[in-house]
Amino acid sequence: MASILDAPLSLYSIPVAWLLAYIPQVIKVTTASKFTTYDNLDPRTNVSKISAKDKVDDRLKAKVARADAAHQNGLESFPVWSIAVLVANYAGLASRSINNTALVYLGSRVVYNYIYINQSKQWHGSSRTLVWNVGVGAALSLLIRSANLVSSRT
């Protein structure tokens, strides 16, 4: 009996991953806008402008910086994920397998963003790294399984 996971849904994970990379950006801008005028002419200086403000609580400065870092990390991992999904579909991996891996990857990005933005203890950083490894591992597993499938046909 076919399930929704047997449908080729993994391609939808690409725009979802892109959106997940931008959620920290929204949090950064929203938080920063409470303390300074957001400079859209030179947006990459906003974090340093918040950091330089004496009247802003250090915890909020740190949260803005972490949200920016989570956003950058999402953008850095996005190409690898996108390529992995495209390659897996092209290679002909089973849709259920790709979809399950996509759920792992997307779930790891949600958890990663949450931990990164809200972390306050050293063990949170270790947890974040573990979650990052799960996401990267998901992408790499798609690439490796795809390569194995293609090479087995030759």
Structure description:
- It is a single chain.
- The protein is an all-alpha fold and 154 residues long.
- The protein has one domain (8-152): Membrane associated eicosanoid/glutathione metabolism-like domain (Four Helix Bundle (Hemerythrin (Met), subunit A)), CATH 1.20.120.550.
- It contains 5 helices and no strands.
- It has helices at 13-33, 46-52, 58-91, 95-118, 122-152.
- The protein is elongated, with a radius of gyration of 19 Å.
- It starts with 12 loop residues before the first helix and ends with a helix.
- 29% of the residues are buried.
Unreliable parts: none
In CATH, the architecture is Up-down Bundle
Level-1 CATH class name: Mainly Alpha
Q: Within the CATH hierarchy, at the fold level, what is the topology?
A: Four Helix Bundle (Hemerythrin (Met), subunit A)
N/C terminus separation? 32 Å
SSE order:
HHHHH
Main structural class: mainly alpha
Q: Which strand-content bin applies to the residues? A: under 5%
Q: Specify the CATH homologous superfamily.
A: Membrane associated eicosanoid/glutathione metabolism-like domain
Tell me, rounded to a whole number, the average pLDDT: 91
Rounded radius of gyration (Å): 19 Å
* Helical run tally: 5
DSSP helix fraction: over 70%
InterPro entries: MAPEG-like_dom_sf, Membr-assoc_MAPEG
Subcellular location: Membrane
Protein name: Membrane-associated proteins in eicosanoid and glutathione metabolism
Pfam family, one: MAPEG
